[in-house]
Amino acid sequence: MSKKHSVLLKEEKCEGCTNCVKGCPTKAIRVHQGKAWIKEDLCIDCAECIRSCEYHAKYTETDQLAEIMEREYPVLLVPPSFYSQFSANIPAQKIKKAIKNLGFKAVFDVADAAAALSRKTLDFLNNNSGSYISTSCPVVVRLIKLQFPELIEMLIPLKSPVELIAEKVEKKLKEEKNINPDIFFLTPCPAKLTTVERSIGQESSFLSGAIGVENIFQKIYKSLEDIELEDEDNDLINLATIWGSEGGEESILKSWQELNTLSVSGIKEVKKLLNEIERNNIPEEIKYFELTSCVDGCIGGVLNVLNSFQAHFNLEKRIKKIQKNSQKVNLELTQKDDEYYNFALSKQIKADNFSKLDHDFKKAMEKLEQLQKEIEDLPGLDCAACGAPDCKTFAEDIVNGRANKTDCIFMLRSMISEMAANLCNLANELPPVMPGDEGEKYEC
Q1: Of 315, 338, 426, 437, which is the most buried if we count CB atoms within 10 A?
Q2: What ranges in 257-328 are assigned the alpha helix state H?
Q3: What pLDDT is attached to residue 285?
Q4: DSSP of 74-128, one letter per residue?
């Protein structure tokens, strides 16, 4: 697994199409010389390129189950979205028992921390003026750091549910059993992998690693038939499991208090909203924004097995089942057990400044001047046929020596036409071979 990013590239599988280039929200991908390459400083691990690549040249590597089982005390954290991969008729307790049968010493629900975070979020919003953006989706946070630095102050300074539960589990196991666990997350998306090595707003992550849903789903599913529960009706699961789909966090907050919130999913739609917030085009009375990179929320993660429509159906039925047995659900507006959570981020979230053309100021100014000239020469069609997402980005690649003007088919056509005209004019200027022979004339 890459320490910097979890979205990786297999060059040998790349066919040089530009689908990934067009879909990348941060213009991090180029296709030059027939192969794609990823500009790491611009990648936010949103996995849009993995979705769009028909040749499977983009991929992600998660921790492997066999390697995890070599740890002394492996623990798995299960996200709310994972339960959407199963029918609501399959009890959550049975699913967790199947996970433990794989070799994990303990299994914990991230939904428990999600409920605690919702309580803390509501308290924070009631005691602070202004509007805030959820920090639970790492892709959205990285997008803001990279392209919307003016909005960083709107990011609510609270840890994500994954980090909260990981910290709590580590603390409790050390205090109660004197155990130093290796905590792994069952992730629906590559972005959570990146946070293990590059945590946001923290010195380091409390996670030891992460394993993709697709890596162990079949093993869990196949073993469910052999698992029996003493009381299948006594299926204690947190109502905050609704966090697994779009609007889940919003619905939990509104179940406690009338609150003006807005929920948006899908990286393209999120970018549109952030642009509107940046322009002050969003009503001030909206207090909280729940933004998720994947369409339909975490159930739309690229590492999941089911499509998001079926997953949404499964999760909705499971939530209704929980609500029906509400007397067994502990989701009151209370701070019970919250003393184990340390909600505040330990580090300030700062902008990512990767816009410099060169680290040397003098060279950067020279490149800027050259960049303006290149942009003026280019057609400005932003067709992506050159392998860059738009003409401005293509001009930057030319200036930095990563592309040539001839990569643009319009520039190439213009240069060939000019060359052909020059050859024609030169041919008409040839002297006669024999006296009295005027030579053949060409129409240019």
Answers
A1: 315
A2: 267-278, 308-324
A3: 94
A4: EEEEEPGGGGGGS-TTS-HHHHHHHHHHTT-SEEEEHHHHHHHHHHHHHHHHHHS
Give φ, ψ of 49 to 5 degrees. Answer: -70, -35
**Going by C-beta distance under 8 Å and a sequence separation of 6 or more, which residues neighbour residue 286?**
131, 260, 261, 262
Q: How far is CA 118 from the centre of its chain?
A: 22
Q: Would you say 244 and 84 are in contact if contact means Cβ atoms under 8 Å apart?
A: yes
pTM over 0.85: yes
Decide: helix, strand or coil at residue 49: helix
**CB-CB contact of 224 with 94 (8 Å):** yes
Could you read off the pLDDT of 405-438 as tens digits, one per residue?
989 988 888 889 888 888 888 887 777 665 656 6
Do residues 170 and 133 touch, judged by C-beta distance below 8 A? no
Matching residue, tokens 């889940």: 248
Contacts of 236 (CB under 8 A, 6+ apart): 93, 328, 329
Residue at 89: amino acid letter = N
**What span, in angstroms and rounded, lies between the C-alpha atoms of 83 and 316?**
10
